[in-house]
Design brief:
Transcription Regulator spoIIAA, single chain, alpha/beta, about 140 residues, six-stranded mixed sheet, disordered N terminus
């Protein structure tokens, strides 16, 4: 008698993260069902690690079973150094997904008149192996 094994892909539903932005905290939408992620607004946090660690942890769990395509839309007006280091942690999680053959793209949206924000996106693009699109927005 032969043993027959049925291969079933078990999908564990993940909680999405929805954070409404303020004058100091960015809007964050992480949707595991669509694979569309958003980080928008201003990130001026004294202890950014406390804010971003759950987001980075979420990405680690999501990376185990990502959607066919994952899109991170980043549209920041300003961020401080503490936040900048956390963004690198986010990009490193995405880089791991890319290394595992996941289809990932970062859309870096910036005010067309803000050369500093464009440069920030280009700097991240040069550090991590994740596809970036630099997308200027008319102000």
């Amino acid at each position: 008698m032969k043993n027959h094994y049925l291969c079933v892909k078990i999908i564990h539903p993940m909680e999405n993260i929805e954070i409404n932005g303020t004058a100091r905290i960015p809007t964050v939408h992480l949707n595991a069902q669509t694979g569309v992620l958003l980080l928008k607004g201003v990130s001026i946090l004294e202890n950014a690690s406390d804010f971003y660690t759950p987001i980075i942890d979420w990405l680690g769990k999501y990376a185990a079973n990502p959607q066919e395509k994952t899109i991170l839309n980043i549209e920041l007006e300003y961020f401080n150094t503490s936040s900048s280091k956390c963004f690198l942690g986010i990009f490193k999680k995405l880089e791991t997904m890319v290394k595992n053959n996941a289809n990932v793209i970062v859309n870096w949206l910036y005010d067309a008149n803000d050369d500093d924000m464009l440069e920030a996106g280009e700097n991240y693009q040069s550090i991590v192996n994740v596809p970036f699109q630099m997308l200027p927005i008319a102000s």
